[in-house]
Amino acid sequence: MRTATKARTLISPPKRSRIGDIRMRVVYRGLAVAAAVAAAAVAVVVVLPSEPDEVVAGPVTAPPAAQPSSGPSAPASPLASASVSSSVSSSVSSSASPSETVTPAAPAAQVTPTPGTSLAPGYTAMEALYADPRVPKLTAKVKRMRLPAPSRRVTRDRRSGLAVPKLPKPWKTYGPAPFTTRQVLPRPRAGAVRGMFVTCPLPIMEQKSPRDTALLAARWTLNHHPKGARITWLASQPVKRGWLLVYRVTYGKRSSRAAVVVVDGGMSKPGLAFVTVPDAQRKQWSDIARVASGVRVLG
Question: What transmembrane ranges does the database entry give (predicted)?
Fold first, then answer.
């Protein structure tokens, strides 16, 4: 019996392995599913970008410019969409096409300075004038003045192309430098300031308008008045080939009457006639009108 049992055991077929029991099509299906899952995982890692630092740091203030692309645009990431406001999203979607041109933002408008403000480099001469608190705005309320008949006695300034009145005594001719002609009044006892009448080629930049040129010239004359001087307009009117301004200059408790006449004398620059008389010599204030009426082109 033991021999028969042993022989039966030896001739019994071997047991099949578990892998062999599984059909091949089932194995192929499992491999296909595993490959699909792995591909999906790789796609998720590639498609989902990390959230940009700008969105984390603060709100987006303006939509970025559209980037050129040779193919269709990729869909927006859910994380990025959740971080951007609805107004920015609508702006980006409207400019998503690479064929459209993105219009750059308009530059900030230049602010015109007002009187009393400080100036940055690059402002024009007229903007500097309007910002100078010593010179008020010249309005239409400033009227014209009556001018007497011009004087027959003249002083000729060939450098500026002007003929100007030769004023009577107590005026006298004086050394012209740094001007081209100069007449002065005697120095008063009450102070060092005295009357002065000078001519020279225009010492400032000529403007398109004779009136604007005269305004700049009047501002320039403050260099020849005491410190802290300020202007009050008394008269403004055109003259032949130029402009006339008459004004009061106040400095502390004292003041002067002054005038500038800018006339095109046919030279490379217009000619300037400038007269100023302090209140200590107010008897000669009437000579300012003589200057205003007597400046003309040198014939």
Answer: 26-48
* pTM summary value: 0.61
- pLDDT tens figures, 239-295: 999 999 999 999 999 999 999 999 999 999 999 999 999 999 999 999 999 999 999
Answer yes or no: is pLDDT of 38 > 70.
no
* pLDDT tens digit sequence for 110-125: 444 444 344 556 789 9
Q: Which two tokens stand for residue 133?
A: 């608190």
How far does CA 50 lie from the centroid of its chain? 42
Q: Which two tokens stand for residue 238?
A: 């055109």
- Two tokens, residue 17: 């392995």
CA dist 71 and 270 (Å) reads: 67
Burial 198-219 (b: 16+ CB within 10 A, else e): bbbbbebebbeebbbbbbbbbb
Domain ranges of the chain: 135-297
Return all residues near 278 (Cβ < 8 A) that are at least 6 apart: 188, 191, 193, 194, 195, 254, 255, 256
Query: What is the rounded distance in angstroms from the CA atom of residue 83 to the CA atom of residue 60?
Result: 9
- For 290, counting Cβ atoms within 10 Å of its Cβ (0-12 exposed, 13-18 middle, 19+ buried), the class is buried
Residue 175: both structure tokens together: 């050394």
Mean pLDDT of 188-195: 82
Spatial CA neighbour of 73 closest among 51, 52, 95, 91: 95
Q: What is the pLDDT of residue 34?
A: 61
Q: 135-297 belongs to which homologous superfamily?
A: Mog1/PsbP, alpha/beta/alpha sandwich (3.40.1000.10)
Burial classification of residue 254, based on how many CB atoms lie within 10 Å of its CB (0-12 exposed, 13-18 middle, 19 or more buried): middle
